[in-house]
Design goal:
Layout (H helix, E strand, L loop, with lengths): L7 H4 E2 L2 E2 L1 E6 L8 H5 L9 E2 L2 E2 H10 L4 E8 L2 H6 L3 H4 L4 E5 L4 H8 L9 E5 L7 H10 L5 E7 H7 L8 E3 L2 E11 L5 H10 L6 H5 L4 H8 L5 H11 L4 E5 L12 H14 L5
Parallel strand pairs: 3-6, 3-8, 6-7, 9-12
Antiparallel strand pairs: 1-2, 4-5, 8-11, 9-11, 10-11
Amino acid sequence: MPLPPVTDADSQAGGFALWTAVIMAGQRPEGDPMAAYCNVRYKALIPIAGRSMLERVTRALLGSVHVGRIIIMAQAPDALKAGLDADLADNERIGFAQSNDGLAASIHKIAGSAIAPWPVLVTTADNALLTEEMIDYFLQAHAGEDVAVGVVERRTMLAAYPAARRTWLKFRGGAYSGANLFALHNEAARPALALWSTVEKDRKKGWKIFAQFGPWLLLRALSRTIGFQDAMAKAGQRLSLHAAPVVLPFPESAIDVDKPADLELVTRILEQREGLSG
């Protein structure tokens, strides 16, 4: 559906460029197991502690002083819009866009356009524990790299949630799990989107991703003789861009809702956070 372009006034505040936040809220054409488990048609609309996941992520982004416009991308944007509270569905800062088959291809389609000007922040609708504080920390820690990825170190996660099961990328000095926060700063980020499109199905398998950058970097990653910062920097060099991880101090930022156990944990955290338990 058409969206009005962003004006200079929309994209600037306090002397710095505001980010366009893109929420990936699509799902496979055959449906999503978690949506079926929760008896809803779309995973993004799974309710947790009284609010859908999509509403929670959208409100967190609206609360950040760094975010200008929000674009919700899905195969059925009209259905997701109808599932939001009226104050969000009719908010002038929130737009809806049709997604393609793949996450990376969908972002590539609008990133840097008048609808979603640079810089672009990408997150997912199942990032239900996202907060304004997490968003601001990530964007303030971003040091102008063409591509930055939010991650949580395993020790941070296990200190708070020792039973949490995550996928870990292991490097010298630590292991990391993704926080579903991606900063795409400018046109130079496009090669990363192209690569992302080719490895999207293997995003949980770090070695397959690093294999795209040649045997030397793959060997160093597998043998853990390189740190995550250096690995991302060298991978970025292969793509002629600057890339870096942003290590977040919030363990909850790496807990999304992919499985029933995740939903149970996220529900418990939100009920405690919002004083709803008991």
